[in-house]
């Protein structure tokens, strides 16, 4: 037996839950807090969408080859300076230590290279 198709009425169900949560907030000023807690306990819990929290941390990328080293942040700065682009939205860096070169693409249209060490 084929399954029945989902209807638009089921899709609107989460919107109704949001309205009931707002009603609890409105009645909080009118009713006592204990009555609000009781009414909130009877209603199903609604998951709140929170922005993903990014942990703040410090990172450092060091490229070592042939007895020398280069820091990734410095390579990005050198690429921007070498390109002479005023507004930078995206920087792609490609490091080839075997040929001592750094290739860059800035904003998808400006490209070039410079020596790694």
Q: Can you count the helices?
A: 4
Q: In order across it, which strands form the biggest sheet?
A: 3-4-5
From N to C, what is the helix and strand string?
HHHEEHEEE
First-residue to last-residue Cα separation: 70 Å
**What is the count of β-strands?**
5
Oligomer: single chain
Helix fraction bin: 25-40%
Q: Report low-confidence residues grouped into runs of 5 or more.
A: 10-32
Look at the structure and give the mean pLDDT. 74
Name the descriptors.
117 residues; alpha+beta; 3-stranded antiparallel β-sheet; two-stranded antiparallel ribbon; 4 helices; 5 strands; elongated
Q: How would you sum up this structure, described in words?
A:
- The chain is built from four helices and five strands; from the N terminus they run H-H-H-E-E-H-E-E-E.
- Mean pLDDT is 74; it is low at 10-32.
- The strands form two sheets. The chain has a three-stranded antiparallel β-sheet, covered by helices on one side.
- The radius of gyration is 28 Å and the shape is elongated.
- A hairpin with a 2-residue loop joins strand 1 and strand 2.
- The chain has helices at residues 8-11, 13-30, 33-42, 72-83; strands at 62-65, 68-71, 91-96, 101-106, 110-115.
- The protein has 117 residues and is α+β, with helices and mostly antiparallel strands.
């Amino acid at each position: 037996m084929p399954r029945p198709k989902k209807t638009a009425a089921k899709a609107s169900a989460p919107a109704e839950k949001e309205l009931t949560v707002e009603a609890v907030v409105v009645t909080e000023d009118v009713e006592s807090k204990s009555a609000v807690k009781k009414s909130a306990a009877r209603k199903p819990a609604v998951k709140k969408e929170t922005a993903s929290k990014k942990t703040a941390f410090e990172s450092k990328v060091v490229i070592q080859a042939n007895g020398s080293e280069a820091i990734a942040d410095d390579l990005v700065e050198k690429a921007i300076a070498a390109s002479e682009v005023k507004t930078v939205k995206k920087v792609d860096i490609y490091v080839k230590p075997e040929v001592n070169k750094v290739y860059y693409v800035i904003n998808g249209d400006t490209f070039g290279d410079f020596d790694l060490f």
